[in-house]
Amino acid sequence: MHRGVHLLTLSNFLFTSESVSEGHPDKVCDRISDEIVDTFLARASEARVACETMVTTNRIVLAGEVRGPESITHDVMENVAREAVRQIGYEQEGFHWEHATVEVHIHSQSGDIAMGVDGGGNKDEGAGDQGIMFGYACRETDVLMPAAIHYSHAILRSLADARHSGSEPGLLPDSKSQITLRYENGKPVCATSVVVSSQHVASLSQEEIREIVRPHVVNVLPEGWMCPEEEFYVNPTGRFVIGGPDGDTGLTGRKIIVDTYGGSAPHGGGAFSGKDPSKVDRSAAYAARYMAKNVVAAELAERCTIQLSYAIGVAKPLSLYVDTHDTGQVDETKLATALSEAMDLTPRGIRKHLQLNKPIYARSAAYGHFGREPDADGGFSWERTDMAAELKRALS
Question: Which among 80, 126, 208, 333 could bridge 313 via Cys, Cβ 3.0 to 4.6 Å?
Fold first, then answer.
């Protein structure tokens, strides 16, 4: 009886996810940090980077540890940061790509860390830190992502495209979205509320912003999914002119749920941006998503969660856990074995399999690291489903 009630409760419910735009203060920091990663990887594919960024009113602060070409000086990193802010679109009195003060406090990587992580002789390259990483995939959308986070991202990407193209000159870079979906029999069927806050020029009223935003929501959501009018909230405070780093301090790595699955799946706690792919916080989370997505793409499960764990300086993962949430077509223990045989899950093996030692990370800094189309140059390689057929054969 208790189990039956539990399943009924889980079949019909409301679930909410949020997203933030590239102009949100935290995302500005993620973008700058990942541009630094790309700058190093473009010149040295085995470079080590751990770059944190903070932004506030007309100030950008970079700090961290690197091991790479000496030609990437503090002046180079300052110019990289300014260009990132320019591309996002900040030319405001309180935060301007050209006028902001930029401080660079980046130094060489600790020798103690390098000694534990580097490979050599008979020693394979170890993980850059201890930790747990999760990957997830499900059939709620065609990109095998949870619906609420997928559509939250899509609304903000649509608004950003309109702003960058000049078709909506009244929009400014900072914005947020939030969608609540109704689930019936475990599947999303409609939005019950939508919240969008968009920074704007002072001359626009709340009602004008509402009508600018409306088509970007209606066109993104599946037909018939739009929420009731009284549950459509746009700039609910009434005015959003002062925004971005001038309105709120930003830090790298503060939007880890936005970056992943919108709360639909567990999170190991590690951020991605600003880290080269030797850091398993990033690369193993990508590997876990890649494996989970291929499990679902191979029709071996409707939903799949994968956990990996690592110890600093140790190459092989300490554990591989697979949960198909009672939707699996094969035994989870056999599935875990097949996954570990299909992919080398050491840090070096992950990087080789997914070709991660490339300058491909700045593009991932906003609108989610998952559910994106793989790029021809190797970007979002963890979104490929090229392992699905192999898994299906191994488990048939």
Answer: 126
The whole-angstrom separation of Cα 139 and Cα 385 is: 14
Structure tokens at 306: 């994968």
Are the CB atoms for 97 and 83 separated by under 8 Å? yes
Per-residue pLDDT, 118 = 60
Residue type at 267 in one-letter notation: H
Provide Rg for the chain, Cα atoms: 22
In angstroms, the CA 152 to CA 179 distance is 6
* Crossing angle for the helix pair 25-43 and 74-88, to the nearest 10 degrees: 130
Q: Quote the CA–CA distance of 298 and 387 in Å, as a whole number.
A: 8
The CA distance from 111 to 271, in Å, is: 23
Contact of 236 with 197, CB cutoff 8 Å: yes
Q: What angle do CA 353, 356, 361 make, to 5 degrees?
A: 150
Give the model confidence (pLDDT) of 192-241 as tens digits.
Answer: 999 999 999 999 999 999 999 999 999 999 999 999 999 999 999 999 99
* DSSP-derived secondary structure for 308-375: EEE-BT--S-SEEEEE-TT--SS-HHHHHHHHHHHS--SHHHHHHHHT-SSS--GGGSSS-SSSPPPP
Residue whose structure tokens are 């903000």: 156
3-class secondary-structure state, position 65: strand
Burial class for 87, CB neighbours closer than 10 Å (0-12, 13-18, 19+): middle
Within the chain, strands assigned E span 13-20, 48-56, 59-67, 91-92, 95-96, 101-108, 131-138, 171-184, 187-200, 232-234, 250-251, 303-310, 319-323
Instruction: At 299, list the tokens.
Output: 């029709």
Spatial distance between the Cα atoms of 106 and 73, rounded to a whole number of angstroms: 10
Q: What is residue 230's DSSP assignment?
A: G
